[in-house]
Amino acid sequence: MAQKGVLFQIMNIYLDLFTTFFKIGLFTFGGGYAMLPMLESEVVNKKKWATYDELMDYFAVGQCTPGVIAVNTATFIGYYQKKVPGAIVATLGVVCPSIVIILLIATLMTNFADLPIVQHALSGIRVAVCVLILKAVLKLCKSGIKDIWGILLFAAALACTYFNLLNTVIIVIIAASTGILISLRKAKKEAAHE
């Protein structure tokens, strides 16, 4: 009887991972950035699977690794909870709604894409997605930019991205290297003051 209880508890954790990420995948429009507020609500506030800083770390790594940010973040959180099986379950949870919705839209869109009501609905969705992305960017700025070095790094990365001066991968590598150098410099200063 005790084994059934343990097995049920284990299955319940996987079901919880799947349903949480299924809900996130189902109700998030606009990709990874738009997903951040919902991830924070579900993963940090409700489930307590990660702190806000850990979520930002998963999100940052998810941006730097190949693939979709939302899928990468779900995979990281699932792995953190239940290793490889948790990563698989969370990834399936976040991907399933997209697959179903894309199949439905692809089937229906060819017939209804030219209708004015569909065009207006898509325009409204784009505006809502912009708001969600802006909210995510502002939160990322608050948590990521903590001092003058952060402001300078943000401005440099923004300029390089906006004016297409450098490839995005190069910007990420330079930003990571600069962050490491700044933290080493701060650690040296603190060690010298002690």
What does this structure look like?
The protein is mainly α and about 190 residues long. Helix content is about 85%, strand content about 0%. It has helices at about 1-25, 30-45, 50-65, 70-110, 115-145, 150-160, 170-194. The longest helix has about 45 residues, at about 70-110. The protein is flat and about 65 Å long. About 20% of the residues are buried.
Percentage of residues assigned to helices: over 70%
How far the N terminus sits from the C terminus, by CA atoms, comes to 59 Å
Outline the biggest β-sheet: none
Estimate the mean pLDDT confidence: 87
* Count of individual helical segments: 7
Secondary structure layout:
Elements: H1 2-27, H2 32-46, H3 52-64, H4 69-112, H5 116-144, H6 148-162, H7 168-193
Short description:
It is built from seven helices and no strands.
Question: Which descriptors would you attach to this protein?
Answer:
single chain, 194 residues, mainly alpha, 87% helix, flat
